[in-house]
Amino acid sequence: MLTIDHNACTACKICLQNCPFGALYFDDDNKLMVNDLCTLCGACVNVCRFHALHIERKMASADELAKYKGVFVWVEMDQDESPQKPKKVAFELLGKARQLADELKEPVTAVVLTDKDDLDWASLGQFGADEVIVCKHDLLGEYSTDGFTNVMCAVISGKKPAVVLYGATPHGRDFAPRVAARLKLGLTADCTGLAIDVDRQLVQTRPAFGGNIMASIITPYNRPQTATVRPNVFSVLSKQEGKAASVDYFPVTLNRSAIRTRVVERKYLDDQNEVAIEDARIIVAGGRGCQKAANLALLQTLADQLGGVLAGSRTIVEQGWIPHTRQVGQSGTTVGPELYIAAGISGAVQHVVGMNSSKTIVAINKDPEAPIFKTADLGIVGDALEIIPLLSKLIQNGSGKD
Questions:
Q1: Are residues 156 and 182 in the same domain?
Q2: pLDDT of amino acid 287
Q3: What's the gap between Cα 104 and its chain centre?
């Protein structure tokens, strides 16, 4: 709650100018007031030189926090697959949830929203889950913001988890904030790190200020603590054969009238026969050093020879050389291939956060001081437009000698 000390307030109105939500105003008696638009962001408190503004946040008691147990993971189904199966990011999150839950000594629960009942949900236990909550309803076969939000809110309210994790996919980014807003929870988006501190708080790490710093965020005042995590940030646990999770069917009540959207048509930006960059084992990525769009043909040739895909930095996407679906980085896609070749990419932190999970990184750049070399496992100083054809020739000859 935002409180105002009217005796200290001088009506300088600096707070009004800095409030991003228009939540402050002066009444007829020239007294500073706050309306329902206030989000407790603290912008007004930071600029008040007279200490007239204060934010009071009620911390939940230890007894209240203790009622929330376990780490929940939303298991997103890949609706482009037939039959449907969980997306890879769900397995990545189950693996990380297993680590967090082991520190908390609490269980991991996978939450599935679907219209199917013939899949082997118990097998999610092989990747870290202790329990699977299946929410089955005919209206959950196709993703909808309203339907998924209603059901997930019911699950969280009924089961009271301590932590809820979502994949930062288009669907996850759409409905996770709505769930958090409806239940008045905190939500940290696009996390690159998750850990448990000495106070059993979930420490959520994400890039901030354009990726120039990493911010660590905790949610000490309420439960559950919620976060979205980009695909390819965490590794999938090794499959534990024979380990099965218990399966619980959660009762779902949904009416079509409560779902305000319909899927009329699907259009894909990429050829569906092509491998998406987030799923690629090998990526050859180009940047400003490629000089012009025509030169990307050299990178495409190398990618084809290696059985990989072509990608790029934000710079060449903005110039229209490749589509946004092929952009690697903070404002693009996070990737984690076995081999990542960065050709003519300087290595700005916004790009690096999108590819530093790659198992092997090869950087090619004319500038020996380019930041990309600090991340690379192998660095080649030289013109990428000269070196890439040499690599292609060596591969074509099938020999390391030329």
A1: yes
A2: 93
A3: 23
